[in-house]
Amino acid sequence: MDYDRRMKREVERGMIERCRHGEEAAWDELFSIHYGPTSRFVFQLSGDFTIDDSEEICQEAFLSVVKNLGDFSGRSALQTWIFRIAANKARDYRSKQMAAKRGGGQTPADPTVSETPRLKSGAVPDRRGPEALLDPPPVERAVAGLWTLGFR
Prior knowledge:
Elements: H1 3-20, H2 24-45, H3 51-68, H4 78-101, H5 138-148
């Protein structure tokens, strides 16, 4: 490792120690050095992240940096560690976006539909017998409807 890189690592270690001891100026230094590059890194991770998305991801990443700086071991450069956190936060953000587009895996609750279908007598149908055909649950009704329309 050349002299400049060694000095940079020493300065970085000193800044990290000052942050760990709660020195506000050290945190300001950390943010001013690493926030811009991290924001650009996140923005480039996906072609469809907006600037607002990148900003939100960076805020989450730096919140994690603040909470977990005590666990930073120094085996890598601080920026590498921050970029890894940002990449993980970007992945989580993307997963949440995809889940929201899918409805979060939840179907909207319909208060008019009973969770457990009942026969006219009020009894719960036996799914193995012919009574199950009298009042199928909504999902089975929808599948049967699609099937009859030729969607197979």
